[in-house]
Write a structure and sequence with these properties.
- The chain is an alpha+beta fold and 482 residues long.
- Helix content is 41%, strand content 24%.
- The protein contains 17 helices and 13 strands.
- A hairpin with a 3-residue loop joins strand 6 and strand 7.
- It starts with 6 loop residues before the first strand and ends with a helix.
Length: 482
């Protein structure tokens, strides 16, 4: 909410369970032009609309869409319009942040009908986030024209954002992928993100994967059984919306896990399987290795010092050490241990749940619950920060998690996979998207892809059908369980 409009304070809930807000607004210097307040029962959106209506009354303007300021239109018309169109919370939050940071301070109090393309062009050119400013302003003014809040549409074709996009890092090469797989052993969070990202998943899809999303494809052959893991992609996770079902039909797909990462992914998934033990007759305890928690440890730096005790203390203070300990272990030699801050690490969070019933019932309940839980129960921001910190600590070239998807598509194109299959595996309607935004190829890779296609054409095709198995069912068969 803009500062000139007033303040909105949450009071509590009424007897019907509705939120109660106290809305106050004023006009003029220090409120000399008038003050007004109201109590609103409803959502924060209702409170924002009430605040703008109060301000319109104080200014003597009718609450009419044609006489609105940009602020009033944005909060009372544009945001509710997005909600009616069922836009995600992430989309609405993005519009609000851009508006409040880059548009509202300059144009918020201007009448909607007085805004023209020249003013927008100047604002976009001076904005530190010009591309987002243009995108948000375009959405607002196009919606205003649709609702007849402005008499003529703004010609956004004449408003260009000329700054080039910052160059994005190149995706990992095959050598870097193998190096990352070796270096990241033991880093469960980053390992899971790497294995799933190499399959071509977006970050939001990686965060939404559950054990129930994983299946096994098996085909009986003459020599043995061919087996592949596959992922069912039908949802995504964002910090604002949580789990949401994928709306775009092309994004709903099944992805086969590349065999060179499938064993690693199996091991990581198996580590999350809950264990069940009988405590006493009719009572069991289920242990879930679910999620991660932050573990804080003090970090110390040890240094050898030769001299007297007073010299060691003086030296420690000169180095800026506030907390330190000195231990003499030889004549004239001592160990100075100084405090160097807190080390924060994510460790497995083990949760226990009691269950009343037989051991078999407890196992069925635990597996059913486990299949619904996310493999990476983290926020997107936390995953990004963990990914970056671990890559730097392991000496790997940093690329964003989203670049793993680019890497996947480039590798598939390099290996000679058809354009249609690449687009289908990554949830794109056409191959144009892949070629324009994701795939990085050079002439050497193109020649190699052509050689692979030639080699593939010379191989005889094998007959046989794959059978789909549930992940836990297949694991039980491998272990010899009925």
């Amino acid at each position: 909410m803009s500062r000139p409009v007033g303040s909105i304070e949450y009071i509590g809930r009424d007897k019907d369970g509705l939120q109660v807000w106290r809305v106050q607004t004023a006009v003029g210097a220090q409120g000399k032009g008038g003050r007004a307040s109201a109590t609103v029962h409803g959502s924060r959106r209702d409170a924002e609309i009430a605040a703008h209506e109060l301000r319109s009354e104080l200014l003597g303007r009718p609450s009419n869409i044609v006489t609105m300021t940009l602020d009033e239109y944005f909060y009372t018309r544009f945001i509710p319009r997005l909600e009616r169109l069922e836009r995600t919370r992430a989309t609405i939050t993005s519009y609000r942040k851009t508006y409040e940071l880059h548009i509202q301070p300059h144009h918020g109090e201007m009448m909607l009908t007085s805004i023209d393309d020249l003013m927008i062009r100047r604002l976009v050119a001076s904005s530190s986030s010009g591309r987002n400013t243009l995108r948000t302003y375009r959405a607002i003014m196009n919606a205003a024209y649709d609702e007849r809040a402005i008499p003529h549409p703004i010609n956004f074709n004449r408003i260009q954002y000329s700054r080039p996009k910052p160059s994005r890092p190149q995706p990992w090469s095959r050598t870097e992928i193998h190096a990352a797989l070796d270096a990241l052993r033991g880093e469960e969070i980053v390992e899971l993100a790497l294995c799933l990202g190499i399959c071509g998943l977006r970050k939001e899809e990686i965060l939404a994967i559950t054990p129930g999303s994983i299946g096994v494809l098996r085909k009986e052959g003459g020599i043995g059984t061919d087996e592949y893991l596959y992922l069912r992609i039908d949802s995504a996770f964002t910090d604002e919306d949580g789990i949401k079902v994928t709306k775009t039909p092309d994004s709903v797909r099944e992805v086969v896990v590349p065999p060179f990462v499938a064993p690693r992914l199996r091991d990581l998934v198996d580590q999350t399987v809950p264990s069940v033990r009988m405590v006493r007759s009719g009572a069991c305890l289920i242990t879930y290795p679910y999620g991660w928690k932050t573990k804080k440890e003090a970090r110390y730096v040890d240094r050898l010092f030769e001299g007297t005790l007073s010299d060691a203390e003086r030296d420690a203070r000169s180095r800026g050490c506030v907390h330190y300990k000195i231990e003499a272990f030889d004549e004239g030699r001592m160990l100075v241990r100084s405090y160097a801050g807190i080390r924060q690490e994510l460790v497995r969070d083990i949760k226990e749940e009691p269950f009343v019933g037989t051991l078999e019932q407890a196992r069925s309940h635990a597996i059913a619950d486990w299949r619904r839980r996310r493999l990476l129960p983290l926020s997107g921001d936390r995953l990004t920060k963990t990914w970056k910190r671990v890559l730097e600590r392991r000496g790997l070239r940093y690329i964003p998690i989203s670049m793993l998807r680019h890497t996947s598509e480039s590798l598939m194109a390099e290996s000679g996979v058809s354009a249609a299959l690449i687009a289908k595996a990554h949830g794109h309607a056409t191959f144009t998207t892949d070629l324009k935004h994701y795939i990085d190829l050079d002439s050497t890779r193109l020649v190699g892809a052509a050689d692979l296609v030639t080699e593939a054409m010379g191989r005889a095709q094998e007959d046989g059908l794959f059978k789909i198995h549930d992940y836990m069912t297949a694991a039980g068969e491998d272990a010899g369980q009925p």
